[in-house]
Amino acid sequence: MVKKFCNVLIQTCFKGKFLFLLISILCILVFVPIFRGFVEIRILTNIFLTTTLISGVYAVSKKKHVLLTAVFLAMPFFASMWTGILLKVPSLVLVGECFGILFTGFIVIIILSFIFGEQEVTINVIHGAIVVYLLIAIMWAFIYSVLEIIQPGSFAIGEGQIEVGRLLFIYYSFVTITTLGYGDITPVTAPANSFAILEAVTGQIYLVVLVARLVGMHIAQSMDRKSS
Question: Each residue of 143-156: pLDDT tens digit?
Fold first, then answer.
């Protein structure tokens, strides 16, 4: 009886595991700009990135080895993110951004494996699909940050923009993956141009493949219901 109750409790907790991660990412996009004038923007960004890290680890915590890998990748980024406020060491920031790329990339792979392993379209699958799209953009923001650290001046930034940092590249990444292309931030080096193109193509391919997968799952699900 106790074992059955624990299993139900675990299933209930993991049923909305991607929802927490989705909310955390949306907080970065919504609340950081709103509270920018009240709290130091770097600290505010770090707070919401920390909640995203925790939510990301929670989202993939069903299997022990996956959980340990996620924690291993998250810790260096977490340490670099907060120590970087006091210690202005470019190499420390570079290491943190690299682990940020590895962490988000790992979470994307795990969630994608879950989505393509499911046979029914559920609200959890939809949450996971949205989260992957947002995480891809955040991962590319870390890539742009690494490019700027390695080769300063990789991006031409228009007047009136916030200072170079994670929030700026998160903004640029989402503008790129959605192919809005406002032109207020422009890649000016070959690597920056290449990664910008690659992100835009990746975003479009992901949407096409995802829609095809979800539609296919929905059709199969409908046919199963009719035949039963």
Answer: 999 999 999 989 98
